Every structure is written in structure tokens, then in C-alpha cells.
Amino acid sequence: MQKPKLTNTPNIEISIAPMMQYTDRHFRYLARLLSPNVKLYTEMIVIDAILNNQENLDNKEFFKFNKELEPPLAIQLGGSCPKKYAKVAKILDKYNFAEINLNIGCPSDRVQAGKIGACLMQEPNLVAECLDAIKSNITKNTQVTVKSRIGIDNLDSYEFLYNFIDILNKKGSDAFIIHARKAWLSGLNPKQNRTIPKINYDRVYQIKKDFPDTKIIINGEIKTTSEISEHIKNVDGCMLGRAIYNNPYMLGEIEKEFFNNEYTIPSREEISEKMFSYLNEQVNHNKSVTQIIKHLQGLYFNEPNAKKWRSMLNNQIQLYKTKSA
Questions:
Q1: Pick from 44, 4, 26: nearest CA to 292
Q2: What is the dihedral of CA 209, 192, 240, 178, to 10 degrees?
Q3: E strand or H helix at 54
Q4: In angstroms, rounded to a whole number, what is the distance separating the alpha carbons of residues 166 and 265?
Q5: Run of H or E including 22
Q6: What Å distances lie between residue 319 and 75, 156, 309, CA to CA?
Q7: How many CB atoms lie under 10 A from the CB of residue 144?
Q8: pLDDT digits (tens, 9 = 90+) for 149-189
Q9: Kindly report the CA angle at 265 between 43 and 230, in degrees rounded to 5?
Q10: Beta strands, E only, 193-307
Q11: Pure H helices in 155-241
Q12: How far is C-alpha 191 from the geometric centre of its chain's CA atoms?
């Protein structure tokens, strides 16, 4: 697939958030069919998984991607050991990632147990060491960025966020992706942490004002192209998550409005045809039909025949299961 030229807002970055069990290579394939220029992220990969599978890394499912179709592709990493990050950076240096992103935003108990995610916001100097370890061992022109919240627990002041950004900015972080709500490290599950803490876009806007030369991407409850238009008046870009997963066809609208106004959005029928062709190829390589088909559930989001579409997909899953039995 040849990418159309950027004709609208080439300095604006719009991306799809890394989401475990959602933004796998199959969903990224679907996303690229609809938008050649939105930045894609891998699911979070724990750095130990890379270090423990060096000899067979390209054959691991979590590390497979379409090198021609997916770029610009960013890889998100989880970890807290600078020495391990240095080793991982040397491994990743041979790959063509546009960006290496540090996950300092996930609040789940499982992630915290590995000293990964939002809990690291309270240790900005350690995060700075991890950042420096990557940048010191990457020779390619790969951005190294940080994804965080605006705060954690009672560390919820603007001064706390400013200090966190300031320390990492001085270490050379190429950008900050900020989910505009704090995280509670206990008492809320990941889903609740995406909805219960109050959204605070103004705090992210203020960070951009105080760090005008630093790329700031905003994340959190962004659901429409009109909302993107409002946010990019104040920051350098937007990251969307479940709004895109639930309604992937919106990617075509984003491509046309923000990247290329001459772009012709493929029809849903064209997309489904290509995805089922892709599905048949993957089935021949023993890949999960259920995993691929679940990414198509939202293709007819808010359309009159959406329920019928989902029913058809469920029938396809049963059909493939019967064939493989």
C-alpha cells in the first residue's frame, strides 16, 4: 500500500493507543487499510520478553509485524531496569521503529507488580535513567518517548506533573503522551481508571505552554474528529484508544480530514472484503480466527445493519471452528 502525501496538517500527530489484546498486528492491519498515516503502536511488550527470546524474537507472535504496511509504527515497552533497557535498545536498533515508548501510565495491579506503568511516576529519576539507557544505545533516528498520566493517587498537583516532565525533558525525551486524568494505583481496576478519575485537559494544555518546544500529545476520552480539531489548537497531537477500536471506520475520516483531503475512504464493503481475504491467509498459518474477527466487530458501528454484521461475524467464527474440528 502506497501512502498518500500529507497535504493537510503534516505537523500534527494522531495515533492509536497501545492496548493489550487489542492493538495486535491483525488490528494494525485493519487500521492501515483505513488510514495510511495515523501512527500505530504495538501492544505493550515487557522488556524481559524481548531479552528472554532474543534468538527466536522474530518468530514470537508479540513481535510480528508487517514491515512494509505498518510504519510509522511505534513499540511500547514496559520495564524499570536501565541496564535491561540498554540491552533491549541494542536489539531494537536493527528494526525500523519510528518510536520507542516507555509505558509510565498503566495502573493495573499486574503491571505494578513488575514495577511497570503509572507507579513509576513517583520515581522520575529512575525513568530518566531508563530513557537515557535507550537513547545511548540507539543509533537510528528513532524517537524515544514517554506515556504517562497527569498524576497518581495523591500526587496529583500540577507541580508534580511539571517536575516529572521537566526531569525527563532534560534527559531528552522526544515527546510526552499524557493521559489527561490521574491514576489510582489501588482501589480501581484499569477500566475504572479510564473513567472515574476526572479528566483534566487544561493541565495538559498548561504543560504545553510551559514546555513550548516539547512535543505534547493528549490522550483520554477523545472520540470525534471535531474533538481532535479542538485539542490540536493547544497541543501537538492526539492519541485515541477505545473510540477507534469500537469504531475503526473513523480512521478513514481522520485520514481525510487531517492528512490528505484528496483521500478516498474505502467503503466498509471493501474493507471487509480485504479483511476476510487476510483472514483466510492467516487461517492457513494456524492463526486465531476469533482474535482476527473480533477486531471487525465495530466496522459497522452506528450503522443500521450493525447487529446483523456482528451476527454474521459470530457465524463465521462457528463456521471456521467446524471446519478445523
A1: 26
A2: 30
A3: none
A4: 41
A5: none
A6: 34, 51, 15
A7: 24
A8: 999 999 999 999 999 999 999 999 999 999 999 999 888 88
A9: 70
A10: 215-219, 237-240
A11: 158-170, 190-193, 201-210, 225-231
A12: 16
Vertex 93: Cα angle to 44 and 214 (nearest 5)? 70
pTM for the model: 0.93
Distance CA 201, CA 180 (A): 5
- The radius of gyration of the chain's CA atoms, rounded to the nearest angstrom, is 20
Looking at residue 74, its amino acid is A
Contact 282, 314 (CB under 8 A): no
CA dihedral 157, 163, 164, 169 (to 10 degrees): 140
Grid cell 537515557 in the structure block, residue: 132
Residue 22 CA to residue 26 CA, distance in Å, equals 9
81 part of the active site: no
Of the residues 81, 106, 119, 130, only one is catalytic, namely: 106
Copy the grid coordinates of residue 285: 498459518
Dihedral (CA of 117, 119, 124, 128) sign: negative
Closest CA relative to residue 251, chosen from 27, 48, 91, 65? 27
pLDDT in tens, 277-303: 999 888 776 668 888 999 999 999 999
Q: What distance in Å separates the CA atoms of residue 241 and residue 166, rounded to the nearest whole number? A: 26
Domains of the chain: 13-259 (3.20.20.70), 268-324 (no CATH)
Residues 243 and 232: their CA atoms lie apart, in Å, by 18
**Sign for the pseudo-dihedral over CA of 218, 219, 224, 227:** negative
